[in-house]
Design a protein that fits this description.
Elements: E1 6-12, E2 15-26, E3 29-37, H1 46-57, E4 62-68, H2 72-80, E5 84-89, E6 98-104
Parallel strand pairs: 3-4
Antiparallel strand pairs: 1-2, 2-3, 4-6, 5-6
């Protein structure tokens, strides 16, 4: 497994419909650093599919991600995928705190 991170794509009909980046440098835990779904491909489950893919390839007991307080779509996606807020960071973007989300990784 690449511990530095890797970009994962969902390609549909020759077009990149969505992509995401999973890293492991967030205090030693798996972290979804970026998740983007193209505007014409939204509301089709691609974001959830990427999260499920990242969850399946993550080692350890925890998976984290974050998004700005203003990004309600990403917050809703994370909550629907079983994440819960774990704190926030001020002063990254002016007047738009970063919310950190956490999800336990259940293992058989």
């Amino acid at each position: 497994m690449d511990r530095d991170g890797c970009c994962h794509l969902i390609e549909i009909e020759g077009e990149v419909a969505a992509y995401g980046v999973l890293t492991h440098h967030f205090f030693g835990h798996a972290f979804i650093e970026m998740l983007m779904v193209g505007a014409s491909w939204r509301q089709r489950g691609l974001g959830a599919a990427l999260i499920a893919h990242f969850r399946s390839m993550s080692s350890g007991a925890k998976l984290f991600s974050s998004t700005n307080m203003s990004n309600r779509r990403m917050q809703d996606l994370l909550v629907k995928a079983g994440f819960r807020p774990s704190g926030y960071i001020d002063n990254l973007d002016e007047n738009d705190p970063e919310i950190v989300f956490y999800s336990p990784l259940s293992r058989p």
